[in-house]
Amino acid sequence: MFEDDIFGVVDPETGETAYCCIMGNGGEHFAVAGYLGTEGLSGILGLLSGEIDTESSESMFIQKCLMCSFEDRSFLSAEDLKNIKEMGLKFRGRNEWPLFRYHEPGFAPWFLSATQCRFLTLILR
Predict the structure, then answer these.
(1) Which of 35, 25, 33, 32 is nearest to 2 (CA)?
(2) Smallest Cα–Cα separation from 100: which of 88, 85, 118?
(3) What confidence score (pLDDT) does residue 52 get?
(4) Mind listing the pLDDT tens digit for each residue in 73-82?
(5) Residue of 104, 121, 98 lying closest to 36 (CA atoms)
(6) Does the pLDDT value for residue 53 go beyond 80?
(7) Domain range holding 80?
(8) Alpha carbon 36 to chain centroid, angstroms
(9) Would you say residue 89 lies in a domain?
(10) Please, which residues have CB within 8 angstroms of residue 9's CB and are 6 or more apart in sequence?
């Protein structure tokens, strides 16, 4: 799939639609993101059209999405590493470490709530 192949997933708990894309075909950023509701859809369309500069660090602070990305170990927090260790999982190498975050406009990416985790799990499936 390419980053501009978008598909929808409806959250059975809330009825909200996530507009999803798979990133990584270009070999730079490996992730699955679910852009939430009409605000999220507007954001992904802005990224795809070039209206929002993807090279700008600000682009991550204006999106509304749930994201599972695959990063280098150095990108993970101590809490992320603790959770991975508690689950008995092991990863090695570049772009191998899963990072799960909620992106909300105006805020730094943050850990998922239980509801968000269930929805992102559904998106990944």
Answers:
(1) 25
(2) 118
(3) 79
(4) 999 999 999 9
(5) 104
(6) no
(7) 7-124
(8) 11
(9) yes
(10) 17, 18, 20, 34, 119, 122, 123
59 occurs within a structural domain: yes
Q: With contact defined as beta carbons under 8 Å apart, do 80 and 36 qualify?
A: no
Answer for the pair 65, 43: CB distance below 8 angstroms, yes or no.
yes
Whether 2 is covered by a domain: the verdict is: no
Identity of the residue numbered 73: R
The Cα-based distances of 76 to 86, 93, 95, 107 in angstroms read 15, 13, 11, 18
Residues 6+ apart with CB under 8 A from 20: 6, 7, 8, 9, 32, 33, 34, 35, 123
> Quick check: is 88 in a domain?
yes
Query: Are 11 and 102 within 8 A, CB to CB?
Result: no
In total, how many domains does the chain have? Answer: 1
